[in-house]
Amino acid sequence: MNFNELGISESLINILKNNGIKKPTMVQSESIPIIKDGKDVIAEADTGTGKTLAFLLPIFENINEKSANTEVLILTPTRELAIQIYEEAIKLKESKNINILAAYGGKDIGSQLNKLKGNVHLIIATPGRLLDHIKRGTINLLKLKTFVLDEADQMLFMGFKNEVELIKKECSKKHQTLCFSATMDSAVKKLAYRYMKDPIVVSIKKDNVALDNIKQEVVETTDRWKQDSLKKVLELDNPFMAVIFCRTKRRVDNLEMALVQSGFNCEKLHSDIPQNKRERIMKNFRDAKIQYLIATDVASRGLDITGVTHIYNYDAPESVEAYIHRIGRTGRANEKGYTCMFIADKNMEILKKIEEHMNIKIPRRLI
């Protein structure tokens, strides 16, 4: 299956080729025809499987550039994700003369208001800033054709349910709804169904298939020696680009301070860091000016960064899904990846669950 067979126009295919994308991923192959056809979709696929293009490409095919209305709304839980989707949409904009607005908190509302004086075909927004615009009367969704909930599990089940319902009330009565997420359990699907009409479920689970490219290891340590163990591993590996996961914001802060003092080139990423600084950190990391990004799961959620060679689980993840989500940020596009998890006695239960789920015994690394 190629993009041509999926009904994607030559102008979009050429943009994809220029960005090194030659053939569709599984989630794109399955979702694009259904979305182009105007049907509602619930799509579940891991980070790094091409979910963003799975909805952006058919949206660009269907959008009417002559329309004076906002036709598409993409709602996302974090500013970083809004920026990431906006950057992808801007690349595709060469194929169509449409106006795109990114509306998120931390960005000057004045510049957003100026842009809204013209017609905006596609809006990529976080819930709070979008509701702000709706209250001001600067955004009108009464002629909306497509509503996308990205990271739908977080939007519906982790704090944004009320905002989503308020926004839905402002939309046209008849519109297409697309829910995309890495994980969609039955409770989230049940909620999603309330907003949708006969949705088609697309479920692509990469689990062990893509994980074949990732070498996994465990360092058995203690809380007292964990930091020293990590430093030793980092010195031995000297990775090109790595993400180090911690459980909480405080632990991110403490680890970053310790690593900086030891001379490591690192930055931290969590929700308490001001937005403009977070954007700068992410740009520097993408440009490989930062070697180590120390982050919480929430801060890094949905971020797709090419070039990450190593993942270090300084703190054990909360669940098997979180582990797969974390390590899936390396070993992309058939590249080799490496992941190392630091485990104390109290984490043995989650390690056992991960090994059972993946049907493997993760090798122990001796340092």
TrEMBL record:
InterPro entries: DEAD/DEAH_box_helicase_dom, DEAD/DEAH_RhlB, DEAD_box_RNA_helicase, Helicase_ATP-bd, Helicase_C-like, P-loop_NTPase, RNA_helicase_DEAD_Q_motif. Residues 213-367 form the Helicase C-terminal domain. The keyword Protein transport does not apply. Residues 32-202 form the Helicase ATP-binding domain. Residues 1-29 form the DEAD-box RNA helicase Q domain. GO terms for molecular function: helicase activity. Pfam families: DEAD, Helicase_C. A motif (Q motif) lies at residues 1-29. Keywords: ATP-binding, Helicase, Hydrolase, Nucleotide-binding. Belongs to the DEAD box helicase family. This is DEAD/DEAH box helicase. It comes from Clostridium cibarium.
